[in-house]
Amino acid sequence: MEDSYLKSQIDLIDTKIHEAETLLEDSELGELAKNEIESLKLQKHQLQSSAVEIANSISSKSTNTLDKKNAILEIKGAAGGDEAKTGLASLCVCICGLRKIISIL
């Protein structure tokens, strides 16, 4: 489990389940304890499912192919004329990692 918050919440639920299990033998509180245990086990299952989803989403982001796709970036000159367009194109190459600039409008 990657997320320490989720792990701490699951540990807390485990503690509550253990506490409720000690009340199962009680004639007055046994039924309430049984219902509480069922509810806590459901919460634990939901948290564990969330942890798996988070782990899967983190691992899928590292292999995301969208980062490797081409993009079209349109650069238009405004105040500053040709010098501004050339400077902006150079900036885009540095920041965006563009390999090739086809044209500057």
Describe the 3D structure.
The protein folds into 2 domains: 4-66; 70-96, no CATH class. The mean pLDDT is 76. Helices cover 64% and strands 0% of the residues. The protein is mainly alpha-helical.
Task: Note the main attributes of this structure.
105 residues; 3 helices; rod-shaped
Topology of helices and strands:
Elements: H1 4-21, H2 30-62, H3 81-96
Q: How many helices?
A: 3
Number of domains: 2
Weakly predicted, low-confidence segments: none
Quaternary structure: single chain
Number of strands: 0
Rg (CA only) = 28 Å
The mean pLDDT is 76
Outline type: rod-shaped
Task: Summarize the biggest pleated sheet.
Answer: none
- Strand percent estimate: under 5%
Structural class designation: mainly alpha
The end-to-end span amounts to: 51 Å
Strand/helix succession: HHH
Helix proportion range: 55-70%
Can you summarize this structure?
The chain has 3 helices and no strands. It has 105 residues and is mainly alpha-helical.
